[in-house]
Amino acid sequence: MIEIKDLWYTYPGRSEPTLKGINLRVEKGEFVLLTGPTGCGKSTLLKTLNGIIPHESGGIFSGSVKIKGMETTESNQIEISKEVGLVFQNPDDQIFSTTVEDEVAFGPENLCFERKEIDRKVEEALKIVGMSGHRLASTNSLSGGQKQRICIASMLAMAPEVLAMDEPVSQMDPRGTHEVLNTVRELNRKLKTTILLVEHRLHELAPFVDRIVIMDEGKIVFDQPASKAFDHLEVFYRLGLRIPEPVELCHSLGIKASPLSVSGALALLDTEDFRKNINIFQPSPNPEKSTVVIKNSSRKPSTENNNSENNNSENNNSENNNSENNNSENNNSENNNSENNNSENNNSENNNSENNNSENNNSENNNSENNNSENNNSENNGYENNDCKNNRSSIVSIQDLWSGYEKNKMVLKGINLEINKGERVAIMGTNGSGKSTLLLHLAAILKPDKGSVKVFEEDTRSKNPYSFAGKVGFVFQNPDLMLFCDSAEEEARFGPVQLKYSNIEERVKNSLEAMSILPFRYDLPQALSRGQRLRTAVASVISINPELILLDEPTTGQDRMNIEQMMDFFKNNNSTLIFCTHDIEVAMSYATRILVMNDGKIIADGKGKEVIKDTESLRKASLTQPPVVEIANHLGINAFSVKELVKTLTSRSAEGIKC
Ligand SMILES: Nc1ncnc2c1ncn2[C@@H]1O[C@H](COP(=O)(O)OP(=O)(O)OP(=O)(O)O)[C@@H](O)[C@H]1O
Ligand SMILES: Nc1ncnc2c1ncn2[C@@H]1O[C@H](COP(=O)(O)OP(=O)(O)OP(=O)(O)O)[C@@H](O)[C@H]1O
């Protein structure tokens, strides 16, 4: 279906080629996942499939791209697009109709189907992506994830033979992602649709695909069936790519297999061979009834063991504080002790570099007070303990907030929320549940219909977004809405210049460096990959060093290395962070608190380790537990990361053997 031979491509204005001798063959009916570090050329390769490159892009193109034998350079785009449906990386680049119905009907109309048939196709496609109820909605009124669903529906309605999808589910909630991928997989099987899908969330997508292809620096460097791909973990580690937790767990335990699912991992853990070696537990389908059997040990299972596990994990923390701070696995909220230490260190460093800035000095003084109070209460880490909470300065205070975009159609329905200085709060929940809307209120971009929002003790109703310039930084879900300068470095310079800060060049350099954008500092932002553009937008905010940072899905479209680098930066930074995410693993690793939203309400609020156990709220909010937590539950073990689970299992094993 797809045959690419020795493909080289250089964008206009670039001296270096982006694609460097690509050879790839995809058979009819194959479902291929294409992944690789941000900026390696994945989107560029997809754009050659439907002829956007070189027909619209210009640039220097050589080699051959054939779809069903049709050479794309020799065919016109209308012909090619009958065969290849492309789901764009940025839904705003794809959607152009004013209503959902028109958008999805556009393809079938152009293929000249009968009216009745078009209606049926639109209905069917909207049903698949869970958007039937939005058929008559305006496309402008959709949330980010809802827009992605519409983009997928538009392509499904045309039923092309080749489907090229560029991060089609990056902004979708986990359950939506699962449901849509299941259906896409069914169609792929039933209709023999050939699918080439680009995604960084390969840990979630791997179970759906036949084959995994990895690119690096414009070349294909890896190509394996999905069932075997993770036998070569070194490649994934080297390129900073994510790995399914069941695979990581089994490899860490020395099991030579790469299960892609929880059930696959449990089956392996339940084998005679493995139990003979570790011999510590009996997996049970019901976590409540799980028993832990320690060889030759008189220690009793059930609750006692759970306690001992808690003890273990606390011990782990103290170990982690010393040696493993750089490892994201250990970044659970119990590590906050070490985090606080880190951030204090940073504060003192910052004090040195930013003495000239009176605003920052104020906030830093507050921090040091704050840190003192945190130190006095090292166990509670702040937000959970009411005494401590009262001692800390409140940054956000929301009382009974009701808000909507249209009259009589409330999106936020009675939000009450207090956020204190220094917290890192993740907001999670179903697409369209109101997460972005809530963030827009915190930046005073939206105003309450009822109730009140106070930021830094100021009622947002009497403020405009500029009132908080320098104190509140906001990165939109779509970074393209905030990039308007001629280079990445100009983007990072803009804020500090406007705010007349000192040490501007140092701020620019540090922020670009922190987001790995320094090598592209002179590039036009529009000539960067999406991951690079998003990090440029983040750099343009952190160069201001605001006290409150609001990030709307900052890790979408980033590889593992960049996610860790970005989130480690915020972890070690003294600002208060509120970020929306659909990535439960990121939230668990980096947030001190998780809010779960559904239908405009906060339905759960607590430490990651508490929220993750509230399966009813997770279900309502279309969230799922991370695979490692599911596996631990089945084993009756209290663990929240691969490292914690491995440590518990192996320390028990050692104990069992010793006994
Ligand atoms: N329009 C353009 N003009 C010039 N260079 C570009 C353009 N678009 C992309 N590039 C460059 O080509 C390289 C590959 O970009 P591409 O978008 O294909 O990467 P990607 O692998 O899809 O990244 P991501 O995972 O971040 O989406 C990047 O270094 C980028 O700077
Ligand atoms: N400009 C707008 N006009 C009208 N309705 C809107 C507008 N923006 C958002 N909405 C509606 O408000 C609801 C909440 O949208 P919001 O973007 O806050 O959701 P979200 O939880 O951030 O979703 P996602 O996870 O998809 O980003 C959605 O039903 C959406 O359709």
UniProtKB/TrEMBL annotation:
GO terms for molecular function: ATP binding; ATP hydrolysis activity; ATPase-coupled transmembrane transporter activity. GO terms for cellular component: ATP-binding cassette (ABC) transporter complex. Probably part of an ABC transporter complex. Responsible for energy coupling to the transport system. This is ABC transporter ATP-binding protein. Pfam families: ABC_tran. Belongs to the ABC transporter superfamily. Transmembrane segments: none annotated. SMART domains: AAA (SM00382). It comes from Methanosarcina spelaei. Residues 279-390 are annotated as: Disordered.
